[in-house]
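Incident review: delayed structure delivery

Summary: a single-chain prediction request sat in the queue longer than the usual turnaround. Root cause was a stuck worker, restarted by the on-call engineer. No data loss occurred. The affected request and its eventual output are reproduced below so the record is complete for anyone auditing the incident later.

Affected input:
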Amino acid sequence: MLKQSPNDKKQYQPLTLSNGLQVLLVQNTESEKAAAALAINAGHFDDPRDREGLAHFVEHMLFLGTKNYPDGSEYQKFISQHGGHHNAWTGTEHTCFFFDIQSNFLPEALARFADFFICPLLSEEFVETERQNIDAEFKLKLKDDIRRLYDVHKATVNQAHPFSQFSVGNLETLADRDGQSAQADILAYFEQNYRANLMTLAIEGPQPLEELEQLAKQYFSSIKTGGDKKTITTPLYLAEHLAQEISVTPVKEERQLIVSFAMPGIDEYYQHKPESVLTYLLGHEGKGSILSLLKQQHLALGLTAGSGINGSNFKDFNISISLTEQGEQEIDGILDIVFSYIQLLKSKPLSHTYYIEKQKLARIAFDYMERLKPLDSVNQLAVNMQHYPVEDYIAGDYLMAGMCDDSVEHLLTFLSPNNCRIVKIGQNYQCDQLSPWYQVPYQVSAISPQTLERWQTITVHQDLKLPAPNPYIIDKPQVWPHSHESSKPALIDNHNGLCVWYKQDTTYKVPKGYIYIGIDSPLAIASTANIVMTRMFVDIFSDQVIEEHYDAELAGIHYQLYAHQGGMTLQLSGLSEKQPLLLERLLASLIQHNFTEQAFEQSKALHVKQWQNADKNKSISQLFATLSSLMQPHNPAASELLETVSSISFAQFMRFCGRLFEHITLEVLIHGNWLESHARAIAKQIEDGFNHCFDGRNHVSCPVIDIDGHQEYIVPVLLPEHDHAAVCYYPQTEKDEHSTALTMLTSHFLAPLFFQEMRTEKQYGYLVNVGYIPINRYPGIAFYIQSPHTSPVELVSAMDEFIATVSDKLSSVTNEQWQTFKFGLSAQLAEKDTSLRTKSQRFWAAISNQDFTFDRKQRLLEAINDISLEQVIAFIDKVLCKTDNQDFISRLTLVSLENKTQSKQWEDRGAIIINEPSELSQKTERKY
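Output delivered after worker restart:
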């Protein structure tokens, strides 16, 4: 019998098919979507030594046709046309495939999906093209610091362990060789690993369990069985790989220290989770913690504990510390503090208090489990089925059966200097080696015996202490009974610049709530300098209150202050009962802030680093960031922010902070587990917290650049040593429902056709898409490609040619196909909110956009239903398409340049070249 949350109304049925495939069927009558996920206990650890990346390659190849559905793009088109999504991933020891779709098309989707694992073509025809796609995916992440650190990690472990192997693959590892074709190896890998006894399958839909069972048996019983999974016994680290210091040079300006301890696999402890106590204490951010002391000494900005790679026979327990410039110079002192705290943990048996606190929170999370979308649900379940027995498929992640002192003590023994690896990440280290695949500079040296001995016998620092009991943790949170409840928020206060919207919500039966406080301040966006200082205010405030309110965060009451184009927003979320207590304290800190010059300089340095690193992002991300700043005057580019921040003084900043809340308006949403009396009390708190200092005249409207004028604007962006990239963006002149629906439909309809032609057939690159991109509610459509080998001139020409010829392809679409496609998109939009969080986000977006009827979704659905295929074709021909006898329709074309001289090749297109963001503002109007 599966352990199930009292809040989970789904029906579950586990079964094992005749071929050994373990299946979990889920009836969910509250969703019109169905979904399935299949996980295989095989991943890149199963790659042959001479064929690295093969598991990833096979994952890609399975999408490219089966015996019964030989068209390599048929599956993707079918899922997309019927309102669904699909994807897959390859991990170390598992691979997972998944999709969702409108529930009445589940049988047809399962027929196609199951064939992946029964009769895939794995055709030679697609080997070369998909090999190119794998290589493009590899090259896309060459400058990704996470991938690069991973590469160094692989190079510095036991090379006999499969973790050391290159997981992605490229043209070199996946090439055909004399007497050894890649296709032959693909077939061999599939035959060996894609076996029913290694698989787990989760299917969820509104259909009765009997019908789901019949579908599972009909489509998946033919998967072959046989073969055994070898247990990995090779250790990840030998003695020579421990007590090491590893220095790494990143691409971005980063300063990080990772203290990593080697542990065995911890899956066997899942019922007790002893590692959670160590994570709780080492990662604590309250008084007496490692981070608190490091911040006092201005050595660190943040700390996380417990993360790190893990597998069936290994677990890295990492303490990751984000360093200040000073901290980078004093790493020895930081490490002394870390090992001093570990000594504190070992000095006497740990109190059960900390485990009980975690246990209470885990129980609340399970008892009041919120709904997941079917796609997320089956993904989670299929993987859980690989790790937990049947009864714990759902509950396994939440189980905390009681603190096992022996297990905690056992894991503590691994937190030893002799068992650690110290990883230093920064620009100032001497490196003498390059990692094999990503060419990352690094150096390895042994930690001296004297240092190890010092850490082993270190005394406990006087300022380090274990945390006190958490006052915010609740034993049994209360869910307030249903009172008069409408389908949308009601305005319960509206006077002089304060609008308070309230909605009780018992839909999900959770003791949670959301409070949004939108603060519009004309001063915050009056200049680029003020925009910078607003972001610094948010940063310093957030850092200042972490320690004081960390107990609330741990207890499931979350808060966030973030800047936006009108000022800033304070958001509280999570368990509702003690949110007013936290809100009172946050508002007091917000208004009575007291910032130090040290904090100011630290924030300034952090923002400088962030904006300097912007040009290290992948090409397409930089083009979209440029697009966003060009279209939104209140959202300056990173280069402009960087130029401005250096001239801001502490005195100037403090004067700004003193005036920031003098002239504001407040928009508030209180949604969730509160009665109206609670909401009115919270509104009074907010009113008093801001000293009644608000006025409706201070509302800020966010402008958008209006490029309507039948003119193409070309924006060259200098991206040396990056992939080529191009974005063609068509902003629409109106934001009514018809314009929005037409743009959404066109984007959604063209995306699979564009992907098939530009990526699968023409092999331009890994990042290829057509996307619906609204900016401040004005709809827009973007065509974009990032390519490692094709120039932006060719990419733009290819996009123009696609747009010019795609109407011919659409003319053969039948009315039945069109209606099915429209229904698929409508079904995606019409999908019910699956959680209080998603509903709150929807309500807050409506309030922020002045949509006080809260019915824009319904109006959009009606507009979509009214649009014909002929209107979409006309939209493409008249709005997107460049023709010889017509002025070019309004478009922003953003292209990468390797050097400035390349901009000349765009000058003969009859377009306006924009070299500086201010030029576009000068040549265009603004709209709101």
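Verification: The chain is about 40% helix and 20% strand.
Action items: add queue-age alerting; document worker restart procedure.
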